[in-house]
Prior knowledge:
Number of strands: 10
Number of domains: 1
Low-confidence stretches: 8-49, 286-296
Distance between the termini: 115 Å
Strand order of the largest sheet: 1-2-3-4-10-9-8-6
Number of helices: 8
Amino acid sequence: MKTQSARPSERRRASDRPRISDDARGPDRRRAPDRPPNAADSAGTGTGLPDLSQYGRLAEYNRKRHFGVTPEPAGTPVQRPAGHPLEFVVQKHRARQLHYDFRLEHRGVMLSWAVPKGPSPDPAVKRLAMETEPHPMDYNQFEGVIPEGEYGGGTVMIWDKGVWAPIAPTGLGDEAEADRQLKKGDLKFVLLGEKLSGSWVLVRTRGTRQWLLIKHQDEYVRHEDVATTRPLSVVSGRTLAAIAEAAGASPRQLGDAVAADPPGAVTATSATRRRSTSKSADRQGTPRPRTRPAKR
């Protein structure tokens, strides 16, 4: 017997059929997002997982890390008295890609931006800065290696550190002033660090996480690439390669760290040792190589 076909009105259009959500598909079946990569992806450390910041300022940071494996500190916000000096840190990080993590203390955590080419003290050079998840205050002391397979796996150097303050219309502002400017997407501030100082601005340019880091005109302007001219850690005096080697990095991580150091970069202790050896040889009258005089 011939089966009667359904009437057109009873047919379900494809658009009306139930759709499987991306979460139900599982991590391996999720569709590629049709939007630009998030901030962490730009830093070479993205997971494609949803933002958990609504559950706490450090929820996203903690969710991405296995603290039984990585030496990074677990995240807990810090309560500090009002009016205390606010910390900043810049960490050179060779993860999937080389970038510099620019962090500003704000309300017990470190607000963070990934700056692919590093901060520039030249006002003519505007640096892309992709906002990432806030980090705990304890992260300011972290210098070492995140193991392979972990979020952000690679070598981390404390490239600069110091204190910062937002700039208010009448002088230096407080964290409430920083709140207003962050909401507006135009954060003006001063830094007092070992490599970076003076007046700066972070300007939001697109969406919620894409910013530009720009130096203002003042006496701290320098027309040089400080990431290249001052490549060593401000706490250990080491190159990225020396940090990787001391922390037991994998061969691939060590190779990445070596490639991320500028040509000719030498750990401060090695350079000091060579200078000391040279001075000792002079005092003892040890003969040293001398260039031959040019023939007349």
